[in-house]
Design brief:
The protein has 85 residues and is mainly alpha-helical. 78% of the residues lie in helices and 0% in strands. The chain contains four helices and no strands. The protein has helices at residues 2-15, 22-45, 50-63, 70-83. Helix 1 runs antiparallel to helix 2. The protein is globular. The two termini are 16 Å apart.
């Protein structure tokens, strides 16, 4: 279940590559890493709950907030909100 959800999210990012702006490409690339890490963590812990994975991605982004400028952080969070619905 987690693997399928991860693939769905990554596909949503990939589907927009041809029409994405540079900012969207950056946000998608950055977000891919956080999604994959959260999915791997869930699978390693035997977690099969998508809501738990979503919370892990959100927490991971929050933890990494200082790595990004406020503008870039906003872009990444907006993309996460868009694809995680």
């Amino acid at each position: 279940m987690i693997h399928d959800y991860e693939q769905k999210l990554l596909q949503l990012i990939d589907d927009n590559i041809d029409s994405a702006t540079d900012d969207e490409l950056f946000a998608g690339g950055y977000l891919r890493g956080h999604i994959s890490l959260a999915a791997a963590d869930c699978e390693q812990q035997g977690i099969d709950d998508i809501i738990v994975m979503q919370k892990k991605v959100k927490q991971s982004l929050q933890d990494a907030k200082s790595e990004l400028s406020p503008f870039d952080y906003s872009l990444v969070c907006q993309m996460w909100q868009k694809i995680s619905l």
